[in-house]
Amino acid sequence: MPKTQSKTKVNRKKIYFDDIRSRYFEFFKKRGHVVVPSAPLVPENDPTPLFTGSGMQPLILYLAGQPHPMGKRLCNSQKSFRAEDIMEVGDNRHTTFFEMLGNWSLGDYFKQDQLSWFFEFLTDELKLDPKKLYVTVFSGDNENKIPKDEESINIWKKLFAKEGINAMVVDLVTSDTGSKLGMQGGRIFSYDAKHNWWSRAGPPENMPPGELGGPDSEVFYEFTSVKHDVKYGKNCHPNCGCGRFLEIGNSVFMEYKKSANGKFEKLNQRNVDFGGGLERIAAAMMDNPDVFRNDVFQSLFEDIRIRHGWNYDDANESEKRAMRIVADHMRAAAFIIGDGVTPSNKEQGYILRRLVRRAILNAHEFNSQTSDLYVLIETITNAYKISYPDLHAKSAEIQEIFKEE
Ligand code: SER
């Protein structure tokens, strides 16, 4: 068991989600955006996905052309949950629940404004070092006659040039080539649809008729403290899985629709669908690859330290894994219960049940009396008191449901 007194040197700069969120909203309000509320985690008018997993999901009709009552420029922080990542949680960068900062242009601005604004937000507003930012663009798709995204390449070159960075373009196209060739001094990397195309269904071939999608451009933050691990391939590159590069934002240029004959046609409007993980942006601001070092998780770990003597800073990897699973799953469960789901054997209720049980199982590592685990819910809801007052107000109810389960 780790000692309660930390000897480990960690980056102690406090990063608060509330601060990043409000700076993002202010930045985009100044650029004509209206802040819209986060949709519930259980989709309201869409029976296909069990949970809302990205900010664009509730906006699909408006991206398709229906006028939005709040206008053409929107932004928000969307509560998101991705059940497919449940088994990945435990390392330093996967969570099931996360908040996605999003801004949208519904047939208004396009690549030039989007890429410049996001770069400005990262470098001027959040003061990230531009030398640690690497970007990717779409390399094109001959079969579907969708060209390489030269426009984004040119925008990125100019943005980096303003920072005194001569941004070389490297065509990697696939992760295999990336692993073979490595960085090659590049700053802007082109990849195929597997990495740089976004639709709810994934790459073009998986999209059903009627589905919207488009090329995207991702920004990665480089953690120079992380050494490349050859387990993930010979050489490192932005889309390598080793953890040296973390994707912190994705600008989707949603201007295509798959038609009934399988061909791609342009929509009547060119949209921007941007999403950036709040936890990941916070990790980049701390220059620490561990996304569990933000204010919410740290207050939970502090609670565990006080109650059970486990100190996150001094924990070994397997202990950290257990603490992260408990923290992630309890936070996700709190938000899911907060949005009206109760444990059951089907659909959302089943996922919730799995989260609660996996949290309890892992909590056994540091607390054999897991019957009192539910009290940690209060720490979570307190941490979200300002940004999610509804969640905070339901704390007792959420604890009761967790306790019963
Ligand atoms: N929809 C895109 C994503 O989820 C950008 O928001 O990554």
What would the average pLDDT be, to the nearest integer?
94
SSE order, one letter for each helix or strand? HEHEEHEHEHEHEEEEHHHHHHH
Oligomer: single chain
How would you classify the helix and strand content by structural class? alpha/beta
Could you provide a short overview of the structure?
With 405 residues, the protein is of the alpha/beta class. The protein has helices at residues 17-29, 60-63, 111-125, 150-162, 175-181, 193-196, 278-286, 295-308, 317-338, 347-363, 376-383, 389-393, 395-404; strands spanning 34-35, 73-81, 97-105, 133-138, 169-173, 188-191, 197-199, 212-222, 245-258, 264-277. Helix 9 (317-338) runs antiparallel to helix 10 (347-363) and helix 9 (317-338) crosses helix 13.
How would you describe this structure to a colleague?
The chain has 405 residues and is of the alpha/beta class. Helices cover 35% and strands 19% of the residues. It has helices spanning 17-29, 60-63, 111-125, 150-162, 175-181, 193-196, 278-286, 295-308, 317-338, 347-363, 376-383, 389-393, 395-404; strands at residues 34-35, 73-81, 97-105, 133-138, 169-173, 188-191, 197-199, 212-222, 245-258, 264-277. Strands 1, 2, 3, 4, 5, 6, 7, 8, 9 and 10 form a ten-stranded mixed β-sheet that branches. The protein starts with 16 loop residues before the first helix and ends with a helix. The relative contact order is 0.14. Mean pLDDT is 94; it is low at 2-11. The structure holds serine.
